[in-house]
Amino acid sequence: MRPTSFAGAALSAALLVLALPVPAHAAAGTFSVQPLGNLGSGGPAVEDPQPGTCYDMAPGEFATATNDTDAVAHTFPAAGCRGGATDIAAGAVGGLGIYGSVRFDS
């Protein structure tokens, strides 16, 4: 066996491992929206959201959002995760806005 054959095989194996997909995991915690028109009655919430799934929240309503998960929430002004995204960091509260839908990535 030539010395370069072993090095080439090791490099190929390392590249294969790096190319394998990393399994996605759900964000742990709750993301909730409190529409201004429903103060005190609670609003839509998602517990342990799955990555890549779009959750419709309170389209068209001014609200505040609380991201009590361990992942960044990508919020959108329209249902179906349409429009320009605004991120809310893990453990943060979003300001007054329209939170029509939300998506989390792994």
**What structural class results from the helix and strand content?**
alpha+beta
Low-pLDDT stretches: 13-23
Order of SSEs: HEEEEEEEE
Average pLDDT taken over every residue: 82
Shape summary: globular
List the keywords:
single chain; 106 residues; alpha+beta; four-stranded antiparallel sheet; 1 helix; 36% strand
Explain this structure.
The chain is an alpha+beta fold. Helix content is 16%, strand content 36%. It is built from 1 helix and 8 strands, in the order H-E-E-E-E-E-E-E-E. The strands form 2 sheets. A 4-stranded antiparallel β-sheet has the order 2-1-4-7, with no helix packed on it. Strands 3-8-5-6 form a 4-stranded antiparallel β-sheet, with no helix packed on it. The longest helix has 17 residues. It is globular.
